[in-house]
Specification:
Strand content: 15-25%
Helix content: 25-40%
CATH class of the largest domain: Mainly Beta
Low-confidence stretches: none
Number of strands: 6
Strand order of the largest sheet: 4-5-1-2-3-6
Number of helices: 2
CATH topology of the largest domain: 10 Kd Chaperonin, Protein Cpn10, Chain O
Shape: globular
Order of helices and strands: HEHEEEEE
CATH superfamily of the largest domain: GroES chaperonin
Largest sheet: 6 strands, antiparallel
């Protein structure tokens, strides 16, 4: 193997290790929901329109703020346990589900580059199999 290829491989390995370390650091900083809260991860932002036009950062941020779909990453210990609010005692969603909720609901936080939203368990309006194509009107 040539010196240039060896240097390139070493550089690639260092970058991979740095990304892995960054991912571990972000994971350790991830806040856990408490009580009735659900931790929702938002889908990746679409920065280019279907026609190929690049969206301005302000528009991308506004769309992210108004998003109505997210991935249930974790739940607080009391989520769906209140029998007065959930008399059937059947949770509306579970960890790993894609859910629909009202626009602008919950508390928004950012850990690393990942935006997280904390919503109450009764804010879930629907569970969806595939969130692609679901847009807010």
């Amino acid at each position: 193997m040539s010196v240039a290829k060896t240097k390139a491989k070493v550089t690639s390995i260092k970058k991979d290790k740095a990304k892995e370390g960054e991912a571990k650091q972000v994971a350790s900083m991830m806040p856990e929901p408490v009580g009735y809260q659900l931790q929702i991860l938002l889908p990746k932002d679409e920065t280019v329109t279907d026609g190929g036009v690049i969206k301005p950062d302000l528009l991308v941020d506004r769309e992210r703020t108004a998003t109505i779909v997210g991935f249930v990453h974790s739940m607080g210990v009391d989520a769906y346990k209140d029998t007065t609010r959930f008399p059937s005692q059947i949770p509306w969603c579970k960890v790993g589900d894609w859910v629909i909720f009202s626009a602008f609901v919950g508390t928004r936080v950012k850990v690393g580059k990942q935006e997280i939203r904390f919503i109450n368990d009764d804010c879930v309006q629907a569970v969806v199999e595939d969130p692609r194509g679901i847009k807010r009107l």
